[in-house]
Amino acid sequence: MFTGIVAAIGKIETVQPLDGGADAGVRLTIHAGGLPLADVALGDSIAINGACMTVVEKSDTGFAVDVSRESLNCTVGLDTPTEVNLEKALTLAERLGGHLVSGHVDGLGVVRKFEAVGESWELVIEAPHELAKYLAFKGSVVVNGVSLTVNRVEDLGTGCRFSINLIPHTIAMTTLKHLTVDAKVNLEIDLIARYVERMLSVGKAGA
Known about the structure:
15% of the residues lie in helices and 43% in strands. The chain is of the alpha+beta class.
């Protein structure tokens, strides 16, 4: 589990195809930036742009993960050298500064607006139809590994658009500063909303 509070900005340094042909994934070598690695062991989980990955190699300054073809097909930002948001897995002794995050990307959104508004920035993202019902006013959403609050939701025939306010600290401490209109982003909907939807659907089926 994670919180969606980015601990450091790292960088994918190399992308190496794994053996297995076109259906194989890749091994990423990542410079950890300011992320402390002293307590990280092989097999530990680290969220990379919101996607939970397993550490398979470790050095003093970075680590490596294997990303399956399925994960590559369902995410963005994990197949090319670029900056990435990093967060180590949550321990029970830490504060839950964001919200409960599983590190499982539910779908891809598309940036429709990213503009400065006063001292902050407004980020508008279009979410696919299958995720629209989970997004609510003042609810939580994860964008590229960052826990954020939804300020406005507009339903569309193909999904919905939701608006987020990014304060200067979030811009400075995450890779969201690099977003552009039409860029794709990793989205994870709120864990509680997921379970509520499941319980309601089972109840209707039973009735």
